[in-house]
Amino acid sequence: MPKVKDVKASINDLARRIKKIDGVKEVRVWGSYVHNLNHPTFPLRDLDLLIVADIHSGDLLSILGNCSDPTFNLSRQELEDEGLDPKAVHFTKKFCSIQDFNADHWCISNDDVLLHFGPITKDKAEWADLTEQAEKYATKLAGVERGKLRRASSSKRNDWYWSFKEFLDRQLEDMPGGWYKSNHHVSEVLTETMLIGE
Asked: Residue 36 and residue 148: Cα distance in Å, rounded?
């Protein structure tokens, strides 16, 4: 689990790499990193990367599977023959290859839809409940509470993180990979984000 100070040290370099991807207009972060900027030793489960993209939500939602699936290696013509937008597929492949700091991939499409790459719950309350259950599970297995991870050893933090991730993965395992639409309001989400790599 990276700490806020670890992310802060290289966040602008990460943003520059992401900005090179065709279709990216802005790179933002949100979630626990933004909420804990003043707590340099706060351990992060993941880094919520939010791209404002020049791609329509329908083109992203039509992409199914994970970035290791054969679809992502088809030629431009083959993608078009399959009814997929090559720009959306290329954007997805490049963006999701960014794994720094356990990156969690979010996108605001050019028609103002918030999307997440990979399964998510329908609303914020359901997600909060699921993550609370995952935290309890991780605490039980790793033997350290979320609030005490800051002072825990690196191996304890890793045990906690992988237990947390395992719980979430099991809960969402029946849902296929690809982009999922979130019910969060884009205007509200943007107020909770921070622009990086200006």
From this structure: 15
Q: What is the pTM of this model?
A: 0.78
Across the chain, which has 198 residues, the per-10-residue mean pLDDT values are 90 95 96 93 90 96 82 88 92 93 94 88 71 87 82 83 82 77 88 90
- Residues ≥6 apart with Cβ < 8 Å to 64: 71, 176, 177, 178
102, 44 Cβ separation under 8 angstroms: yes
Closest by CA to 66, choosing from 109, 26, 101, 99, is 99
Rg (CA), the chain: 17
CA distance 95 to 103: 10
How many other C-beta atoms are found inside a 10 Å radius of the C-beta of residue 140? 10
Q: 183 and 123 in contact (C-beta within 8 Å)?
A: yes
Looking only at the bridges linking them, the beta strands covering 103-108 and 24-30 are unpaired
Per DSSP, the residues of 137-192 read HHHHHHSS-GGGGGGS-HHHHHHHHHHHHHHHHHHTTTSPSBEEE--S-HHHHHHT
Dmax of the chain from CA atoms?
54
